[in-house]
Amino acid sequence: MELKRLDASDRRRITALFADVFTREPWNDDWSDTDQLNAYIADLTGQSNSLALGYFDGDRLLAASLGFVKHWFRGTEYVIDELFVDPCMQGQGIGSAFLRAMEAYLTRQGIVLLFLQTERTVPAYAFYLKHGFTELTDHVSFAKEILPGT
Predict the structure, then answer these.
(1) What is the pTM of this model?
(2) pLDDT tens for residues 74-108?
(3) What domains can you pick out in the chain, each with its CATH number?
(4) How, if at all, do strands 60-72 and 50-57 pair?
(5) What is the rounded (10 degree) CA torsion for 100, 90, 13, 3?
(6) How distant, in Å, are the alpha carbons of 38, 41, 78, 86, 116 from that of 68?
(7) Residue 106 burial by CB count (10 A; 0-12/13-18/19+): exposed, middle or buried?
């Protein structure tokens, strides 16, 4: 297995794996609008501070992490927007191995903190706790849907 930094040439394979993962249980996201999906992946991989990492077995992408580097007062952080593993490979230790490889790579890059958000009701929640992530009890996420005419 090998960790590689992903770039624009990898977008097709990132998009395919992302859609395969997140249109299934437990997420059931509707990514049928391929223009929106392609724009989302381009947003996550094409900014000046984007950092996309992939975990490969030969030429096969098994897992990916899409996020960005953020320079913060505590040091440089990697903010993960999406982290996903091929559904056929889940439960086989690929996610754990990928996370270990990511941490080693990020440490060499001077990254001192990983930040991500997930839902308590999905298996990823327990996965992150198992791997030493701490739930931020004072952190609050807000969202507001903006509808036309409001």
Answers:
(1) 0.92
(2) 999 999 999 999 999 999 999 999 999 999 999 99
(3) 2-130 (3.40.630.30)
(4) antiparallel
(5) 20
(6) 18, 13, 6, 21, 11
(7) buried
Angle at 140 between CA 64 and CA 20, to 5 degrees: 25
Mean pLDDT along residues 124-141: 93
Q: In terms of Cα–Cα distance, which of 147, 65, 145, 142 is closest to 105?
A: 65
3-state secondary structure (DSSP) of residue 20: helix
Quick one: pLDDT at residue 149? 76
Token pair, residue 12, equals 């097709």
What phi and psi values does residue 46 have, to the nearest 5 degrees? Answer: -115, 10
Structure tokens at 75: 């040091």
| DSSP H stretches of helix in the chain | 11-22, 34-45, 94-108, 123-130
Identify the burial level of 10 via C-beta atoms within 10 angstroms of its C-beta, where 0-12 means exposed, 13-18 middle and 19 or more buried. Answer: middle
The owner of tokens 């090998």 is 2
